[in-house]
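Re-run with default settings, no changes from the original entry. Doing this only to confirm the output is reproducible before filing.
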Amino acid sequence: MSNTRINEEKTPDSLAVIVRRLEADGSKGPAEAVQKVVFSDAEWKDRLTEAQYRVLRQHKTEPAFCGLLLTQRKSGIYFCAGCGLPLFSSESKYKSGTGWPSFFEPYAKENIEEFEDLSYNMRRTEIRCSRCSGHLGHVFPDGPEPSGLRYCLNSDALIFIECDSLSTAPAEAFTAAAGKLEKATFSAGRFWNVEEAFRSLPGVIDTKVGYIGGQTESPTYEQVSGGETGHAEAVEVIFDPGRISYNDLLDIFWSIHDPTSQDSQGSDFGTQYRSAIFTHSKKQLNEARKSMDMKDASGEYSWPIVTQIRPATQFWPAEEHHQRYIVKNGSHHNKQ
């Protein structure tokens, strides 16, 4: 990719940039100089998911109409998945019909860098996060008023934090996002129950139910529950490691199901209900294996643990009516 920097209006120190951060009360902070977030390629690979690394560090583009945040309509802030800098607000998000999350202006112009992109025999303007130089997407001059611009983003470059009102957002959500949020993915039977077990834990920022580990793209609940796709019903957990550790989540995982049961939980049978941990980094992979070895050796179970531990692959969010299903419908729908 051939890039030429457009905006050189930065501080004299090459390792510092001017940005605006989010205050604890949800207001936009003053322009201030902060140090660039710089890691080696190996460190980025360890900190990011495979999908985040491909977009943020390798400048790849996710497929159209597949991004997790494309249809997000809730009120909140979209942060950089690499360094936690606030990048866009739901107040500027609109439906462009292009297949990627679109905004007509950034949260703060200081937080976005622009570069001339001449790749693929086209002339485009690439946008990156000012603090970590992570690739976000491109900006085009075909957006709505008042800016006339369309900031076209990759979902995997962003982390969304929901709040009812941007001016009265919970400080803890922004404190978490300003640091490093992490992702964990577990399969432990019917995903309604698993989500409920993790959803309200202190330090858990968000949960989403979906499908992972199979071969079918964009699977439906009917396909997965019928055992046609190879996917497991799973829960994706976004958490603040400063408040709850990955090992804490593993403890919850072991406690809510029978990890010695092969492809079944309770009255539910099939590979879609298998016990599995899908890891997002080498650190998670090592911790999951160590945790399972300790559980297996503890004598707590009469049979060997059959839990699969695999690197996370594409996670397909389930249909909206399955999200927070027990909250919406009550525990009497719990069949597990």
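The helical segments are 41-47, 50-56, 171-178, 191-199, 221-225, 246-255, 282-297, 325-329. The chain has two domains: 3-162, 181-333.
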